[in-house]
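User: Can you predict the 3D structure for this chain?
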Amino acid sequence: MKLTFILGVLLGWLFYPCLGQKIEYNVSFEKVVHHIADIEVVFKNIEKEPLVTRMSRSSPGRYALHEFAKNVYDVSALDQNGNDLNIQKKDPYQWEVINHKGYVKIDYKLFANRGDGTYSQIDETHGHLNSPATFIYAPDFKVRPHQITFNLPPDLDWSVATQLQHIGDGVYHAPDLDYLMDSPIELSNYQLKEFVLNHDRKKYKIQFVLHGEAEAEDFNGYFEKVQKIVREEVRVFGDLPDFDFNRYTF
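Assistant: Here is the predicted structure, written as structure tokens:
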């Protein structure tokens, strides 16, 4: 028992620098009429040279190659003092930053005008972000926490809907890169309906977010079908998944 505890502490010390240093994204929407998001991502405590960053080439559930980097442009890299760093595009989906001294901020623009669930879409009505089609990442830092700050357009009545953890005003958290990539994000003045399902001494909040101009009658009818699907799932499997935060959002 004592040996197990000691090993656990040692492993915690070993991995703490990697796990504790989050990757920070900042997303702004000043050019929604042109379907553009301005994104910056900060990597700290970089020990390897060069820093290798990528855009995903496919998306969970849609494993055909899509080469999301084709919608990324104006990529630049800065050091902690705001000085330019040498960033090189090694292939269609990968950038490398050299002589970084352990800190890199990458700025880029994302063109997003395809709302099909695989790509991302940004316009004056909403921002729908599929994470693999949106965020540059570093393969070496997959296990680090990832934090996103959304700077929503002040003249648009947008809110954030996602399975990411809400930790502050416009700030959302994923425990690692895989969680981020599996979490689509809807930013809009969406319609929301929800119900609470009591099962096995637990309460689950099931939410349904809809972007669009559906009439109340149509939305109500759709939501009733969502409830039937969830309740039937319980009857078929005898249980529900252990949803994070006891919440699931369609």
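The chain is about 20% helix and 40% strand. The longest strand covers residues 23-31.
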